[in-house]
Amino acid sequence: MKSVTVVGASLAGLSTVRALRAEGYDGSITVVGEERHQPYDRPPLSKGFLNGDLDTDVLALGSPDEYADPAVRWLLGERAVRLDPAARTLTLAGGRELRTDAVVIATGAAPRTIPGAEGLAGVHTLRTLDDAVALRAELLGGLPRVVVIGAGFIGAEVASTAHALGLDVTVVEAAEVPLERVLGRAMGLVCSSLHADHGVRLLCGTGVAAFTGSSGTGNGGTGERRVTGVRLSDGRVLPADVVVVGVGVRPATEWLAGSGLAVDDGVVCDAGCATGVPGVVAVGDVARCPDPFTGLHTRIEHWTNATEQPRTAARTLLSGTSAAAPVRPPYFWSDQYRARIQLAGYAGPGAEPEIVEGDPDSRSFVAVYRRHGHDVAVLAVNQAKLFSRLRRTLTPVPAAAAATTR
Amino acid sequence: MITVCRIEDLPPGESLRVTEGVPAPVALFNADGTVYAVDDTCTHQDASLADGWLEGCFIECPLHAAAFDLRTGQPTCPPAKEPVRTHRVTVEDGFVVLHVTVGEPV
Questions:
Q1: A255-295 residue pLDDT tens
Q2: Which end of chain B is more exposed for a tag (fewer CB within 10 A), N or C?
Q3: Which of A181, A213, A245 is the last residue of a domain?
Q4: A181, A142: one domain
């Protein structure tokens, strides 16, 4: 293998370059990135970057010596539009073709949107640095009424940041209980109560019917239509100067149509990140791999997964046989309203939380989720030290299930 | 020079954070009998290393798993790129004494 092309230049893409080098690959690497920016860290985009505390340079993931590697070519601002595995060619949006021995798919995901938002100024999604720059300008510009659609972690962090900037924030969530899918009902209620603690309105169990907008004749006659409010499915209208839509993401796989790769809510892979096509692997948010800890065949949209999974993919690619994935509990964190939420493991259906330290009412506690008598997840709010210890004691879900059927 | 605690109050594997009398919080660790001190705040993003996972003389940040060598302060893996400042520690008459390094980070 003399050439590897990594499609995607975010955390998973950069981590793949590092992993290939760490695993001994010394051939050429081409990284194709749709954004014009060098790899940057996304988590601060909803927090310290959004409130104006951090500058762009602090977000840089790579170091100058990494970019000095003459055998790594960075094609930034270039979008891949087609993959032909048989011919080993990748086509870019401008028509340029790249020949390559192997391909790593790391194209990530794109925010879901809500119909009616197209062409309406003031309605934002938040995924990229450019998204964050645009949203930041409006929030720091003092537009006072902010409606956040979706009370997941991104929505909650944006709401927290906007609230700290002194803005009037309302959060709208379609589900009855925010975060229930990832934390369960009880802990979803606890974590989403942070909004009320800080005087941020949270409206649950209601969807969005439509946006209301200006006629397009205002704004000094620029013709720009701008959002003025959000009409909920129950008929209420929330006046809004800025709307942020945080209703999840869809994997960026459109460009793989016709490639022959199995695509079904992501690129379908085995546990070693191998696709059905030799020489093609996938990593990060776009990759749907069976996870040996959770026992689920789902995409994992976490920062830590994007840093660790490339090691497995690199081994698979370089050895030609699917490498074993390490059995590690998935991990993510969220900083909101000056609280640090951390979760490791699997807290989904069938796993019951028990408070083992602190008190949810004090917003400082640790909950351990048990399944068949085994600890399968740990959730901490403002309890990093105990969390650091307990996350290392968790039992993988398949092992927990097997122990009870024996 | 700050007298932190009795050595029995910082047994092997344990850590503590000093916030008073220091320009920035300092974390102390007892790594298998040797006490080390470094700046408490991870150089990557805001997290307390005293809350991290101690393995040998390496401390792993509780937030993003960046690891630092307590002997040198150097990061041993991403995402941290910058070292943490180290501070000298002595044990005198059964007490842990912190000698804070002044000046710029290494």
A1: 999 999 999 999 999 999 999 999 999 999 999 999 999 99
A2: N
A3: A245
A4: yes
Residue A211 and residue A179 share a domain:
yes
Out of B51, B65, B78, whose CB is closest to A385? Answer: B51
Owning domain of residue A206: 122-245
Instruction: Count the domains in chain A.
Output: 3
SS3 of residue A99 by DSSP: strand
> Tokens standing for B36?
């080390």
What's the Cα-to-Cα distance from A377 to each of A15, A94, A155, A254, A356, rounded to whole Å?
A: 26, 46, 23, 34, 12
The predicted pLDDT at position A400 comes to: 87
**Residue from A169, A156, A196, A204 nearest A336 by CA:** A156
Angle at the Cα of A318 from the Cα atoms of A315 and A321, rounded to 5 degrees: 70
Smallest Cβ–Cβ distance between A384 and the set B48, B79, B81 belongs to B48
Residue A208 shares a structural domain with residue A148: yes
Q: Of A61, A307, A333, which is closest to B63 when you measure between CB atoms?
A: A333
Superfamily of the domain at B2-99: Rieske [2Fe-2S] iron-sulphur domain (2.102.10.10)
pLDDT at A139: 96
* Min distance A93 CA to chain B CA atoms (Å): 32
Q: B28, B42, B64: best mutation site toward chain A, by most A Cβ within 10 Å? A: B64
Per-residue pLDDT of A71-109, as tens digits, reads 999 999 999 999 999 999 999 999 999 999 999 999 999
In a domain, A330, yes or no: no
How many beta-carbon contacts under 8 Å exist across A and B?
35
Show the tokens assigned to A135.
Answer: 């949203």
Contact flag A384-B63 (C-beta cutoff 8 Å) = yes
What is the tens place of the pLDDT at every residue in A320-337?
999 999 999 999 999 999
CB contact under 8 A, A388 and B52: yes
In a domain? residue A325: no
Q: Identify whether A360 is part of a domain.
A: yes
Mutate to test the interface with A, among B16, B17, B40, B63 (most CBs of A within 10 A): B63
CA dihedral in degrees (A319, A322, A326, A332; nearest 10)? 110
Contacts of A61 in chain B (CB under 8 A): 78-79
> Predicted ipTM?
0.90
A61 has a chain B CB within 8 A of its CB = yes
Do residues A236 and A139 both lie within one domain?
Answer: yes
Whether pTM > 0.90 for this model: the answer is yes
Do A150 and A240 lie in one domain? The reply is yes
Q: Report if residue A26 sits inside a domain.
A: yes
Q: Are A346 and A257 contained in the same domain?
A: no
What's the Cα-to-Cα distance from A385 to each of A313, A339, B47, B87, rounded to whole Å? 31, 14, 11, 22
Give the domain CATH number at A381: 3.30.390.30
